[in-house]
Amino acid sequence: MYYIWEAMVILLTGVCLIRIAGKKTVAQMSGLEVITILAIASTTGHAISEQGLLKTILALCSLVALLMLVQYLAIKFNFVKRLMIGKATSVIQDGEIIFNNLKKLRISVDQLEARLRENGISSVKDVKTASIEITGQFGYELMNHAKTVTVGDLEKNIEQLQTAILQQISTMEQKETVQIQSTTPIRPDSLE
User: Fold this and answer.
1) Which of 65, 67, 62, 69 is nearest to 47 (CA)?
2) Beta-carbon neighbour count of residue 116 at 10 Å?
3) Domain locations in the chain?
4) Residue 22 has pLDDT above 70, yes or no
5) Is 77 left (phi over 0), alpha (psi -120 to 50) or beta?
6) Measured between alpha carbons, how far is 45 from 39 in angstroms, rounded to an integer?
7) What is this structure's pTM?
């Protein structure tokens, strides 16, 4: 019976520590965070069968504390961020694939094109920049000709068109006024 209570305490401790570590899903985690979560799971599994309750809780707390320390240092120091967390790697620049970076990432052109299609992009030429983020997700920015039009864009364009039309109408009215004034004959009695 003691074994069941110990397992429940370890499970609750693990849940609390994962909540403290952050709310990211596995797809959004950096390599360091995934390794920490796996270490927590492994430690929890071994602890239930072999270790004492206090040792297990201390081991789990130290893993999360180490993770939080590295995350804090990564915010403060860029070299820690590059070393422990990594950085995004560009794979497309100005519509051209960066083949050397694909090789470094061990991603084939077919896999890159599949990621483009998953995001509704039919051509590499439509992509201004694209990168594989530290989480493994695909980030991109489209070229201007391939971007979708938003309501804000339409409103801005309509406002610019309205302003241009009003300016043209005003210019035309001024020209008509000048023409009318120049074609009006001068009466001799008005000269006196």
Assistant:
1) 62
2) 20
3) 2-85, 88-171
4) no
5) beta
6) 10
7) 0.56
